[in-house]
Amino acid sequence: MWRFGARLVAFALAFAATGQALVSALDGAGVGSRRTRVDSVVRLASAVRLLELGRRAERSLAMVGDSHLMIGGQGGALHAGLERALRARGEDVRVSRVADNGLSLLGQYCLADALAAARPDEVVLALNLAHLSPGWQTQQLVPCLVLLEPRRWVEAALLPLHRDGVSLDRLLFYGALGQGRGLGLLTRLTRQQARVVLAWTLLVDAVQTRSPWPGGLGYVDGLERRELERVRDDRGRATAAWAHALYGTALEGVDAGHASLRVLEALLRHYRQAGVPVLVFVNPMNVVHLRALGLVPAEGLAETLRSAEAVVRGQGARWLDLHDRFGDADFVDPMDHLGRETQARARLAERLAEMLVRGRPGPARD
Amino acid sequence: MLFNTAPFAIFFLLVLAGYRLLSRGRRNAWLLGASLLFYFLWIPAYLLLLLADIGVNYALMRAMQRSARPRRLLVASVVFTLGLLAGFKYAAFLVESVSPLSGALLGEALPVPEVLLPLGISFYSFQILALQVDVYRRESEPPPSLARFALFVAFFPQLVAGPILRGREFLPQLERGGAMEPDRTRRGLWLIGAGVFKKVVMGDFLLAPFVDPVFAEPGAAPAPVQLLAVYGFAFQIYFDFSGYTDMARGMACLLGFELPLNFREPYLSRSPAEFWRRWHMTLSRWLRDYLYVPLGGNRRGFARTRVNLLLTMLLGGLWHGAAWNFVIWGGLHGLWLVLHRRLAGPLRGEDAPLRGRDALRIALCFHAVCLLWVFFRADTPAGAVAILERLFTGSYAGEWPVLPALVIALCAGLHGAERWLRRRLPRLRAALGDGALGGAVEGALLGVIAALAVATSGVGAEFIYFQF
Hey, are the CB atoms on B403 and A167 less than 8 Å from each other? Predict the structure, then answer.
C-alpha cells in the first residue's frame, strides 16, 4: 500500500514538475502561444453568440464558409461587401461572418444548431466544391464536435464522417467536453502542445540555414511547402497535380449519395427544421485555368453540380451556381481565392445581394 | 480509438477499474463487453462484421470437431474469412488493377468501390485462421464457448494491431483468468510508458514531421535530405509499431495476461532471415507455420524452397496493404531471402550475442532493409523509383539537415539501448528495490514520460499499421 501510494504521489509530482518545467522553458525562450483548431472552435462559437447578442439591424444574415470568406480582412471580406451591396439596395441589414480557414462541411454541420438557435433571418452558405474531395477530409475539424448538440449525436454517428476522423468515441469525448467545462482545459492544453511544436520548429531553424529546397528540413508548414513546391506557375496558379489534389472528386463527378453531400443535406435539414432560410452558393472556381490543365471533363463537374443542387433544393434551400462566373485574372492563388484588383469580390457580393433581395427561390442558375 | 488518445485513456482506466473490482468469474465477460464496445466505438456497423466473422467461424470450428470430413469445414472457414478480408481490403485494388484492361476491352473503366477498411481485419482474420488450422490439426483445443472464442479474437489490447496470437498461448490464460501479480503490473506500466514514448515522442513528434513531407514529394528533396528521410522512416515505423505493441502488451499485463514479444531490435540483424525473426515476429511465425510450411517449406528440394519463400513473402507484402508497392516490397524481401540462402547458406547462431565483426553485416542488412522500406512508404512504385533515383544519382555535397540527423542518431542509440536494457532490466529493477523509495523513483520516471508524451502529442499522427 505504501509503495503504491509513493508511486502515485511521485508520478503526480513528476508529471506536474515536468509540465511546469516545459512551460517555464518555453516562456524563458520567448516562445509564444499559437492559435489551435480548438481556439478556432471557441472563436466560431463566440461569433455565433455575437450574432445573437449584437442584433441591431432589422435583418440579420449569417455567412458561413471557409477561407474564401476570411480573406480581405474585416472591411474587404465578402460579408462586408455583401452588407454594403444590400444596404445600397435600401435594406437595413447586418451580415455576420461565421467562418474559418478550412471550415469543411463537418465544421459547418457542427455549427448548424447553434447558428439556427441564434435566429438569423437567413444563412448564406458558401459551398466550396473542394470539400467534396478526399484531400479536404482531414481530422483537423474533429474538435468542432464540441459544438454539436447532444440530440444530434446519434445522427452524427450515423453520418459518413469517418474520413473526417469522427468516430463514436471522439463524438462522445468532444460532446462531453462541450457539455461540461472541459473545453477551457482542452484549449489551454492544445495551446501548450502547439507551443512545443513551435519551439521545436524554431530550434530546427536556429541550428541551420534553410536548404535551397524549401521543404528540405521537413519541419516546415505543410501549406507553405505546397505553395512553394507544387505551384511553380509564374502567376502562382495551380499545377495540374495541385488542382487535382484540391478538387479531385468534384471534377470527376459525384452523386447525391456522396459522403460530403449527405453531410450537407443533414446540416441544411437542421436549418429547415429551425425555420431558417438558407441560400447556398457555389464558390467561384478558376474553371478557365482548370480547363487549360485538362482537368474539367465534360460531364464530371456538371454531374457534381446537379447532385449538389438536388440536395440543396431537396432541403428547401435556395441554390446559386457561381462556379464559372469569373475569369482567370480574377483569381489570386491556387486555392481559387478571389483577388481585390479586379473587384471580383465586390462583383460576387453584388450577385449575392441581387439573389437575396429577389427573396424567393430562383431558377437552377442565377 | 488510438491507444495514445484521451478517450482511450478514459476507456482503459474504466475497464481496468471494473475488471479489478469484479470477481474472477465475471472478469472475462467484462473484458468481452469492453472489447466489443471498443470496436463499436470506431464504426458501429463494423461490429456486425466482426461478430459475423466470430459466429460463423465458431460454428465451423465446433462442426469440424464432430465431423468425419473436417477438411471441408476448414476450407469453408478459410474461404469465408479470407473472403471477407479480400472483399473489404482487396476489392478496390483488384478493380483498379483490372480497370485498364476493362477500359480497353469494354470501352469503360470499372467503378472502384469505396470501402473503409474494418479496423484490425488483417490481424484478427489471421488469428482466427491460425486457431482453425490448429484445431483441425488437433494441436489446439477449441474454445469451450462462443464467448471465449469471441474474447480470444476481440481482446481489445491486441485487436487493432496484434500481436497475432496463437490459441495455445492465449486460450489457457483466458481459462485461468488474468493473474494480477505486482511484478506483472509493474512490468505492464513500464511497457505502456515505453510504448507511449516510442510512439508519441519518437515516432509522431520527432520523426513524422521530417519524414512525411519528404515522402510526399518523391525525389524533390536533395539527396542528403532524402537519405535521412529514408533512415528516418525506418525508425519511425519501428517506434510507431513496436511502441503500439508495447502498449498492447503493457495493458494486457495490467489485466493479468501475457502477450508475446513482437519486436526484438530488428535493425541489429545480420541477415534478412534474422531480420524477419526479429521484426513483427508474430506475423513472421504465422507466415512460416500457416503458409511457408504447408507449401512445402524447405522439404521439397532447392528450387521449390525458393519458390515457397518468394510466394510467402509476396503474400506477406500483400497482407500489409492492397497496393502494388507492398507487393513489390514483399517480393524484393523474398528475393533477398532467396539470394541470401544461395550465397550465404543457412546461418548458425544468429541469436548469439553480437561481436565486433558483426558490425559490417549489421550495417549492410540495415541499409538493405532501409532501401526496401522506400517501396513500402512511397505512395506508388513510381514514387519509390524517384526516391531511389535521387538517392543514387543525387549530389551529397549540399547542405545536410542537422537536427534530423541528430534525431536519427538518437534513434539508433535508443534502438541499441533497448537490447542492452532488455538484458539488464531485471537487475535494474532489483537495484531500484521493492521499497517505497524504489516505487517512488519508478513512479517519477513514468510521470516524466507521461508529461513529455502529453506535451508533444499535438502533432497527432495516425498509427501507421492501422491501414493494414
Answer: no
